[in-house]
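quick one
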Amino acid sequence: MREIGHFIGGKHVPGTSGRYADVWQPMTGEVIARVALASKDELRAAVENAKAAQPAWAATNPQRRARVLMKFLELVHRDYDALAELLAREHGKTIPDARGDIQRGLEVVEFAVGIPHLMKGDYSDGAGPGIDIYSMRQALGVVAGITPFNFPAMIPMWKFGPAIACGNAFILKPSERDPGVPMHLAELMLEAGLPPGILNVVNGDKEAVDGILDDPDIQAVGFVGSSSIAQYIYARGAANGKRIQGFGGAKNHMIIMPDADMDQAVDALIGAGYGSAGERCMAISVAVPVGQDAAERLLEKLVPRVESLKIGPSTDNSADFGPLVTREAVERVKGYVDIGLKEGAKLLVDGRNFKLQGYENGFYMGGCLFDHVTADMRIYKEEIFGPVLSVVRAPDYKEALRLPTEHEYGNGVAIFTRDGDAARDFASKVNVGMVGINVPIPVPLAYHTFGGWKRSGFGDLNQHGPDGVRFYTKTKTVTSRWPSGVKDGAEFVIPTMN
Ligand code: NAD
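structure w/ nicotinamide-adenine-dinucleotide:
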């Protein structure tokens, strides 16, 4: 069986802790590899490597650092098919969706290629007599990223692309569920000319994560995963004096106004609610039709579409979605459907008993659709992270705005309408970090920033875009004076510009 160790100092190294996790192939339900789970000592070895390599990398001029990323982009394109297939096998998403996962990661690396410009500082000439002030951005040193299972290509690239471009050395702790792609990406960075030790992959679980949070040489940690772990990472990392960003779970609403183009809204809901089996932090999990008439028109079109979703193995390019990531995930999601029924929601489409012929051991379930879900139900309040869409009927726009605004998650939200006034009011007032207007998954492009609010995001800088560079650098400000004849003696009062 394939054994996945760690990638430290530019080399594959086997795990020495004696602890391993199985890597499953969700489409068949088989174990296809095992991955080593690092001890704190193994993590420490990676940090030592990174620490030794980082100063020379930071001293390399930014154009040369950018050229390594350019070469990396070329190499990922060379290996695109193999990466997408590996990703689909370990994660379960379909190959076309796996290609999108890789592409959205590459776009952030493309953005990071602009690092010579992105790291430029500011200069104030003549701020006082003979005084100039300038600021510069410098790398932090050794930084880390801890990433979730659901985007094993995109999120690692969102983290290490900007961090490495800024001159840091990086420790990546990917999800233990699908570690194959992150390992391959690290190999490609080395092949692209990255010095050994600048990108290290340490596979593991809580022990490796705690090692990262407590390590005195790690300056910053970018985390993406569920909210309870994001909060834990934020608290423990910050208590140790680190810079932390922790992105968490979600419950994304889509408001359907009475004037919306209903066909467009249904297409959007089907793709954003059920794509990748609902295992996306920007998936739509709550549909909010406004008014009785909009609800009826929506459901008339939506129900047959959910009933006819095509579920297939990850290698079937015509499938709408593939299996979920693990058997436990299927059980958890089905458990939520049971809870919804007990809570009194009306199950219009029940996908719990779905079986895929020839793949009976795979981790599949069909699409589920609930109507008459209310804000006090657990299926509304909690993240389900599966192919389950809840319809919450709102009598008017005011209630439709209140629901996502008062929900404890605040990752993404969308409004479908033809009314510019309503859309503008909604975008301005809703208490959520990313808003789509007639766009169901409003993941901003690489040159804007990505981040949720409330329990969807801990910390104050977003991912990628300008914030990605800010997060992985610190600002130094230099005030210089060349007096050329100005003599004002000792000053005991705080200097001012009076
Ligand atoms: P997870 O929280 O289980 O795992 C994320 C990472 O934390 C993994 O690397 C894992 O090894 C580690 N981890 C798990 N348990 C831990 C523990 N007890 N202590 C320390 N570390 C631990 O999340 P997941 O299941 O891999 O991913 C799905 C979640 O991620 C969903 O909640 C989804 O909404 C969220 N997500 C959020 C975003 C975002 O940008 N907000 C993006 C993608 C996914």
